[in-house]
Amino acid sequence: MEGCIQSIDRTGVDFVAFEDPKLVLPQSTQWHVFASFGTLKGGRADWLVEKFTELGANSVTPLLTERSPSISENCVDRLQRVILAAAKQCCPVKAIFCGFSRSYSCY
């Protein structure tokens, strides 16, 4: 951009542009990622939810099936804390939904 400097002092610079500034939008694609997984034993669910969050998932949903172990309220709270901690470390502030879905498979 071409222009002329009007004045310079301790508070800043006064600059007059010769032409109107143009806004250049980023060329990146905005993705909406929705992740779901079967319930896991041990700390593997925590690790998986953390990685989903770090990769930018907008929604994380454990799938409850006929053969899956039940999920307690403590587990839901823990997964939400894992999501919050992972989002604070790597992601810009955004809302990540942690919901539950009931799905039945045919065996």
TrEMBL record:
<keyword id="KW-0698">rRNA processing</keyword>
<dbReference type="GO" id="GO:0070475">
    <property type="term" value="P:rRNA base methylation"/>
</dbReference>
<dbReference type="InterPro" id="IPR006700">
    <property type="entry name" value="RsmE"/>
</dbReference>
<keyword id="KW-0963">Cytoplasm</keyword>
<feature type="domain" description="Ribosomal RNA small subunit methyltransferase E methyltransferase">
    <location>
        <begin position="32"/>
        <end position="90"/>
    </location>
</feature>
<keyword id="KW-0949">S-adenosyl-L-methionine</keyword>
<protein>
    <recommendedName>
        <fullName>16S rRNA (uracil(1498)-N(3))-methyltransferase</fullName>
        <ecNumber>2.1.1.193</ecNumber>
    </recommendedName>
</protein>
<comment type="function">
    <text>Specifically methylates the N3 position of the uracil ring of uridine 1498 (m3U1498) in 16S rRNA. Acts on the fully assembled 30S ribosomal subunit.</text>
</comment>
<dbReference type="GO" id="GO:0005737">
    <property type="term" value="C:cytoplasm"/>
</dbReference>
<dbReference type="InterPro" id="IPR029026">
    <property type="entry name" value="tRNA_m1G_MTases_N"/>
</dbReference>
<keyword id="KW-0489">Methyltransferase</keyword>
<comment type="similarity">
    <text>Belongs to the RNA methyltransferase RsmE family.</text>
</comment>
<dbReference type="InterPro" id="IPR029028">
    <property type="entry name" value="Alpha/beta_knot_MTases"/>
</dbReference>
<dbReference type="InterPro" id="IPR046886">
    <property type="entry name" value="RsmE_MTase_dom"/>
</dbReference>
<keyword id="KW-0808">Transferase</keyword>
<dbReference type="Pfam" id="PF04452">
    <property type="entry name" value="Methyltrans_RNA"/>
</dbReference>
<dbReference type="GO" id="GO:0070042">
    <property type="term" value="F:rRNA (uridine-N3-)-methyltransferase activity"/>
</dbReference>
